[in-house]
Write a structure and sequence with these properties.
- There is one protein chain.
- The protein has one helix and 32 strands.
- It is an all-beta fold.
- It has a 21-stranded antiparallel β-sheet that branches. Strands 1, 2, 3, 4, 5, 6, 7, 8, 9, 10 and 11 form an eleven-stranded antiparallel β-sheet that branches.
- The protein starts with a helix and ends with a strand.
């Protein structure tokens, strides 16, 4: 296959690329999105924001229940009781179409959006900053690293111009302190090195990356990192096979780590269909995932159904070496309510899974998200979510997760901006060194200069009496304007 050939030759070809500058056009408007959940799906190159969506574009603030950004097309669609605030003047409509390249938008009739990227978002967060033709910056972020999820203070995803070459993100995991440097680049790719340090990830180390993109239809990236824990190899490849059909391949290899996943995703007017194969050590899984589009059902409500049929092979489990399972779920979005200048969004979900050996599990949840803008300088938001899981196996067959959070985005004057959020978790089970931390604090300070590079300082840390505390994170980086 073309994809396999590109993967095999990505590193070798990119190493021989001569140094060459890329042409850069004028930057587009900076767009900031906050919501209860923001997820990046690279299978479809879409960014999906759910519940209490607030979008800031210059002096304009948009509110909605849902938003989807089509990264490959340079456009976004907001739906669910959309409001527009321009200097205190407010208007509303069913849906809103936004050009992220120019920042120009307009109200449109209610639309059905194809907004499902599959089952594996690469990044999830509650806030993202879009710099068109440059990058997406998530603060804080949960980043999928194959077999696990890494919590970082800030995560930057490189963003290519629509219909231009996309060289893809870094396939490896990040470190607390990183210093990247370019070794060589050309029209079809580049090679870079990295000096890194993370006391929780092997201490000091070095890394090497190669990225290849021979056309706007896809890319392949390979990285190797060496630190005190040994060597780790990662690869990531994406190809837009045709309109509405993509394939991705990811893999990781290191000390005690052997993981690979392939996914073929089809999407269209009726929904999304994805076939995936994954291998994690000796455990193998095959899945077929399907989802309807999010469709309006009247009264400002929208409904989405999804399901999955899969087979798992786990030789280490002598009681059940393999099984077949089926899942079915639904997500209901409520309309956005506007009270005293604030926007309130509600969401509910439910689902269940049945296994061939008799096991059953059920889960349901509900959430609320409220945000209020005080002109262009201050945006406040708060959220509450309750999720309950009932399973027939495990140490704690019945689990409850309650999450409460407040956040603020402050932009007193250029070039400064400050974002902070505090999350409180009240779960069962949640004891000392068991479960989520009681409190999680995130702070992001940015200096956006009109000319020249800017500075980002991001940090997150946990505290409280219960829960397993994750490592504190700190990120320092320069940004292009």
């Amino acid at each position: 296959m073309r994809l396999a050939f590109r993967l095999a030759t990505a590193f070798l070809l990119a190493c021989g690329l001569p140094t060459r500058a890329f042409a850069a056009g004028p930057p587009g408007p900076r767009i900031e999105i906050t919501a209860q959940n923001v997820a990046l799906f690279t299978d479809r190159r879409v960014l999906v924001a759910d519940a209490g969506v607030a979008v800031k574009v210059g002096t304009r603030t948009l509110g909605a229940a849902h938003a989807i950004v089509y990264l490959g097309e340079g456009r976004a669609v907001l739906s669910g009781g959309v409001t527009l605030d321009v200097g205190g003047t407010k208007t509303s409509g069913a849906s809103y179409a936004l050009d992220i390249e120019t920042g120009i938008g307009r109200f449109v009739d209610a639309v059905t959006t194809n907004d499902t990227g599959g089952t594996n978002p690469v990044v999830t967060s509650q806030r993202v900053v879009i710099r068109p033709d440059d990058s997406l910056t998530f603060t804080p972020a949960q980043v999928g690293t194959g077999v696990a999820v890494q919590t970082v203070a800030s995560y930057t995803y490189p963003l290519a111009a629509p219909h231009a070459k996309d060289f893809g993100p870094s396939p490896g995991i990040g470190a607390a302190l990183q210093y990247p440097f370019l070794l060589g680049r050309g029209r079809d790719g580049y090679v870079s090195g990295t000096g890194r340090y993370d006391r929780y990830l092997g201490g000091a180390g070095v890394g090497l990356e190669a990225h290849l993109a021979t056309s706007p239809r896809g890319y392949a990236a390979f990285s190797v990192a060496q630190d005190g824990d040994g060597a780790r190899y990662d690869l990531l490849a994406f190809e837009n096979v045709s309109d509405g059909l993509t394939q991705t391949l990811t893999g990781s290899r290191g000390v005690g780590l052997a993981y690979a996943r392939y996914a073929l995703t089809s999407f269209g007017r009726t929904g999304t269909l994805q076939f995936s194969l994954s291998q994690n050590g000796a455990t193998h899984s095959d899945d077929v995932f399907a989802s309807t589009n999010r469709a309006a059902i009247g009264g400002g409500f929208a409904l989405l159904f999804d399901g999955d049929v899969g087979r798992d092979v786990h030789p280490a489990d002598f009681a059940v070496a393999q099984d077949v399972r089926g899942s079915l779920g639904a997500v209901l979005d409520g309309p956005s309510y506007h009270v005293a200048g604030a926007s309130l969004s509600l969401q509910a979900s439910a689902g269940g899974t049945a296994y061939s050996y008799g096991r059953r599990s059920f889960a349901q949840g509900a959430s609320a998200f409220v945000s209020r803008s005080f002109g262009p300088m201050l945006l406040l938001n708060a959220s509450a979510a309750v999720f309950q899981s009932n399973d027939q196996v495990g140490t704690y067959p019945r689990s409850t997760f309650r999450t409460y959070a407040v956040g603020a985005t402050l932009q007193p004057r250029a070039p400064w901006s400050l974002f902070t959020t505090v999350q409180y978790a009240h779960d069962w089970p949640q004891f000392a060194n068991v479960g989520r931390p009681e409190f999680l604090q995130t702070v992001a300070l940015r200096i956006h200069r009109t000319r020249g590079p800017g500075l980002e300082i991001d940090t997150s840390f946990a505290y409280g009496r219960t829960g397993l505390r994750p490592k504190p994170t700190l990120s320092l980086s320069l940004i292009r304007q």
